[in-house]
Design brief:
Blueprint: H1 6-17, H2 19-41, H3 45-67, H4 75-99, H5 106-127, H6 131-151, H7 155-254, H8 264-281, E1 284-293, H9 295-302, H10 304-321, E2 327-332, E3 335-343, H11 348-361, E4 364-366, E5 369-371, E6 374-382, H12 389-405, E7 411-413, H13 418-435, E8 441-450, E9 456-467, E10 471-473, H14 475-485, H15 488-504, E11 512-516, H16 519-522, H17 527-538, E12 545-549, H18 551-556, H19 558-570, E13 574-580, H20 587-592, E14 597-600, H21 602-605, H22 612-627, E15 631-635, H23 640-648, E16 653-655, E17 663-664, H24 668-684
Parallel strand pairs: 6-7, 9-11, 11-12, 12-13, 13-14, 14-15, 15-16
Antiparallel strand pairs: 1-3, 1-6, 2-3, 4-5, 8-9, 8-16, 8-17, 9-10
Bound molecules: ligand C2E and magnesium ion (2 copies).
Length: about 675
């Protein structure tokens, strides 16, 4: 039953779909035939005919009924069954005709011919879709007709029937072919429609996908838009910050944040402009370089906050005294620069410099602290000194250094010889920065001798610097540099440690050693505690340690000095006031502070033997110090006559070249040996 194709299925379907019409037609024809024959000739055979017909019709109806319910694989069997049933019907009618081939009644004969022709013709519609069924139905009838005509000798009727048979078969075949072509077309169309429907579904799916993608895309676009918006907002914010920063940077590039004064860069720009204007107008121009004296001191003792306050105050005061046409700027640190334009007279800077010095020498009050500073001013002028902005600025700086050198709170006009000195000084400054690491420092010790007992009572430790380029440099030259650069703190600590090690080494034979302290060291917060630590670390006997301070310390900040000195003396150390008689120390200080010794300066010793006035002063100092229970040491005694005079004036201790120059550590034992020899000589005389 296999091998049935789609077209055949359709043909069988069409065959069965016509089944009711065909059956009805056959049944109707059958009934008519039965009635016709029954009433005309009462033939017996007609009952068999009708019975057989009915069975065949019922078979076809039953098949029609079951065809839709059965498995499709039996379709061919159904088709064949239909063919057989149709054959039976065709045979049934053929046999009926053959049985009555010799009928005389024309009506009956004509009726039969009409029945056959009608059945054969109508079967084209109902059976030709399945040619086997059609052939099975019509061929028996056509053959029976030809046979009947032949038996009756009606040749022309035979011919006509044969032609009709041929014609009707062609038509049936044609009908069949048309049906099949139609089905193929329909199949193709339905395939086309299915394809189209599939295409439509595909397109719809694609469209949906497209829609989905579009939605996704829109979501992404929305997200991206949001991100872009955010980025944009960030960018705007960044641009705002950048603009602000640029403005701030521009401000910082040209202004000093602390004093709100123009900075060095802006000053130089202004100076350049002023110079070109002055060149055209042939006018005078002055550059004043102001440097605060001992500003480092303030920062170290009071902290940077107060230091900043002082700088602001200085800026305010400078603003007050200058004319609108003058430019004032902060050059950096504690340096200020002033540009004086449209000057009529070369003496104008002189007046201004004096004013500045006077103004900055008046005490400042910053956050409740009374602060004294001073200023050194250097002056350079166009066209007298130069016509280039940077040169003029450098010259005024050089002049300022010169002013500092000759004593602070001073001013100087530029002279070309200064520049070389400044360069030397800078070189020295750099060399000093490396001196400690390079072991270029060492201490020498100058003996102090008791005038009456002729015994060594102690030594003064003095710093020496031996540099490969500068050789031995005088402390009077390099110590101020150590102070100005702040190196004194580090070097000062080294000196103390070195001197204490000298004591603990036993080389000083239990004599006290005097250490010089710079005013800067004393102003360090809690410096006494640091000294205590070093004393404890070295394990030295504190009573053998003496510290020398200078008068300048007393004027600076009395209460702090007082505290420092009392802390030192609590440690058991003694305190000597150095260079006594050179400054303006009031005697009253001596009563208020724990000072054990005064060191009378060499300037009072030189020419003491001839200068009566000096003798009176020294006598007064000795008397006064004895009354206060303060010892005296005479510094710089070089001659026997000086010694004699000092002895007459009741001087006690001598330190000077007469007895010994400052000695290197290795020479100290020799010194003691010499002393012993001298003592022995003394005894024997
Ligand atoms: P000073 O403390 O008054 O030291 C005494 C100075 O007088 C020393 O000069 C010493 O060599 C010198 N001298 C001693 N006897 C005579 C003499 O008979 N004739 C002459 N013409 N001079 C004599 P030096 O060593 O050059 O020191 C100069 C100054 O440098 C010192 O004066 C002191 O203020 C400072 N100094 C030296 N060493 C140190 C130190 O270790 N620390 C600190 N802060 N300052 C020091
Ligand atoms: Mg000294
Ligand atoms: Mg001295």
């Amino acid at each position: 039953m296999s091998g049935i194709n789609t077209l055949e299925k359709t043909q069988i379907g069409a065959l069965y779909s016509q089944s009711y019409t065909a059956n009805m037609a056959v049944l109707a024809t059958g009934i008519l035939t039965y009635i016709f024959f029954y009433f005309s000739i009462q033939a017996n055979y007609i009952d068999w005919f009708f019975l057989t017909l009915c069975i065949a019709i019922i078979t076809r109806v039953t098949l029609t009924f079951y065809i839709n319910r059965c498995d499709k694989k039996y379709l061919k069997a159904f088709a064949n069954a239909y063919v057989i049933a149709s054959l039976i019907i065709g045979l049934d009618f053929s046999i009926l005709s053959l049985t009555y081939y010799d009928l005389k009644e024309f009506d009956l004969r004509f009726f039969l011919i009409i029945v056959h022709v009608g059945l054969i013709t109508s079967a084209i519609v109902t059976l030709s879709v399945w040619m086997q069924a059609y052939l099975a139905f019509t061929l028996p009838q056509l053959i029976s007709l030809i046979l009947i005509f032949s038996i009756n000798g009606n040749i022309s009727a035979v011919l006509i029937t044969a032609i009709f048979s041929g014609f009707i078969l062609i038509v049936a075949k044609r009908f069949n072919t048309n049906f099949k072509d139609g089905r193929v077309l329909i199949e193709k169309n339905s395939q086309l429609i299915t394809n189209m429907e599939e295409e439509i579904v595909r397109r719809k799916t694609a469209q949906l996908e497209l829609e989905e993608h579009k939605n996704k895309l829109e979501d992404i676009i929305y997200e991206r838009t949001c991100e872009l918006k955010k980025i944009n907002e960030n960018l705007v914010e960044q641009m705002r910050i950048r603009e602000e920063t640029e403005k701030k940077l521009e401000y910082l590039a040209y202004y000093d944040d602390l004093t709100e004064l123009p900075n060095r860069s802006l000053f130089i720009e202004n100076l350049k402009k002023a110079l070109s204007l002055a060149k055209r107008k042939e006018s005078l121009l002055g550059v004043l370089f102001v440097d605060l004296d001992r500003f480092k001191n303030i920062n170290d003792s009071h902290g940077h906050y107060i230091g900043d306050g002082v700088l602001k105050n200085v800026a305010d005061r400078l603003r007050e005294i200058l004319r609108d046409s003058d430019t004032i700027a902060r050059n950096g640190g504690d340096e200020f620069v002033i540009l004086m334009e449209n000057m009529k007279d070369v003496r104008e800077p002189y007046v201004v410099a004096n004013k500045i010095i006077e103004l900055l020498n008046t005490k400042f009050n910053v956050e409740g602290h009374d602060i004294h500073i001073g200023a050194s001013v250097g002056i350079a002028m166009y066209p007298l000194d130069g016509d280039n902005a940077l040169d003029l600025l450098k010259m005024s700086d050089t002049a300022m250094y010169e002013a500092k050198k000759i004593g602070r709170n001073n001013f100087q006009f530029y002279s070309s010889s200064m520049s070389n000195q400044i360069a030397d000084r800078l070189k020295m400054e750099n060399a000093l920065r490396e001196a400690l690491d390079k072991n270029e420092f060492f201490l020498v010790y100058q003996p102090q001798v008791n005038l009456i007992t002729q015994k060594t009572v102690g030594f003064e430790a003095l710093l020496r610097w031996n540099n490969y380029e500068f050789g031995f440099v005088s402390p009077a030259e390099f110590i101020p540099i150590l102070e100005e650069t702040g190196l004194i703190y580090q070097v000062g600590e080294w000196i103390i440690l070195e001197a204490l090690n000298f004591i603990t080494s036993g080389k000083s034979k239990g004599k006290k050693v005097s250490i010089n302290l710079s005013p800067l060291q004393c102003s360090i917060n809690n410096y006494a505690a640091q000294i205590k630590k070093i004393i404890e670390k070295t394990g030295v006997d504190a009573t053998l340690v003496e510290f020398e301070i200078t008068e300048s310390l007393l004027i600076n900040d009395f209460s702090q000095t007082e505290m420092f000195l009392s802390d030192i003396s609590k440690l058991g150390c003694t305190i000597a006031l150095d260079d006594f008689g050179t400054g303006y120390t009031s005697f009253s200080y001596l009563t208020k502070l724990p000072i054990d010794i005064i060191k009378i300066d060499r300037s009072l010793v030189t020419s003491i033997e001839t200068n009566r006035e000096l003798q009176n002063i020294v006598r007064a100092i000795i008397t006064m110090s004895e009354n206060l229970n303060i010892e005296n040491v005479f510094e710089g005694v070089e001659t026997e006559s000086e010694l004699e005079k000092i002895a007459q004036l009741n001087g006690k201790i001598i330190q000077g070249y007469l007895f010994s120059r400052p000695l290197e550590e290795s020479k100290i034992s020799e010194w003691f040996k010499l002393c012993e020899e001298n003592a022995a000589k003394y005894k024997t005389q």
